[in-house]
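User: For my dataset I need records formatted as: sequence, then structure tokens, nothing else. Please produce one.
Assistant:
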Amino acid sequence: MEEFYDNRNSCQPGENPPPEPASAEQEAAGEETPQTEREAARCVRCGAVLLGGDVCPMCGLPASISNAAPRYQYIPAPPPKKSSTKKVVLIVLAVVLGAVLLFSGCMALLIGVARNAEPSRSGVEEFDEYYDFLPHDFHLEYTNESRYLRVESLGTSRSDGTWDYPAPEGKEYVVVSLRITNLYEDIMAYDAANFELCNSNGNLTPSLETDLDTATALGYGRLLPDGFVEGTLVFLAPVGETDLVLYLNDYTNSICFPLL
């Protein structure tokens, strides 16, 4: 007995058989068509799959709106790009640093201009400043007094030296006897190291410590108001030199006068 086959239900090898339509009993019972038999319904707002409820399970959009809207492909929005905070911070720091450097340079320039614009000092202070570098000034008037001290020469003597301190060739020792009086209303200090002897060549030599005047050496100390001290100083000078000038410069007194 021959068998008849319906060609509409046949399929070629390698192909999936077409889905069978839902039966009338399934439609009457309200059963859903399997997911493989139709396209899954998605929410038009967030793209979530609608599970058959009244609202979207993800965003809460009513299912009626999603079913009524056309089916578009859902593409999620890209995440927002992070702002380059580090670049902004670096730019701000660079601007602040540049402003600080500019301000410092301007202040240094203004300070330099202000210093150069200061008027030069005059009087005794200006003379003392140059006196440290050029203590011998032939235009300076000779005087044996300052505001603070009076220096008087009590006499001079010359010597070739002793066995321990012989004078170099062409030179001799000059021993100067002095009296120093305090003219100020406060205590004043004195020191033999502040005295120098100048010859006719403008050569200044300091006082020396020798055994020529061990008992009478001036040394150093302090004087009460109206107090005085006497002592000797020893210098080296050219043999026979007569044009000798005694200098005292202790940053408070500027005294010079010739020795006879």
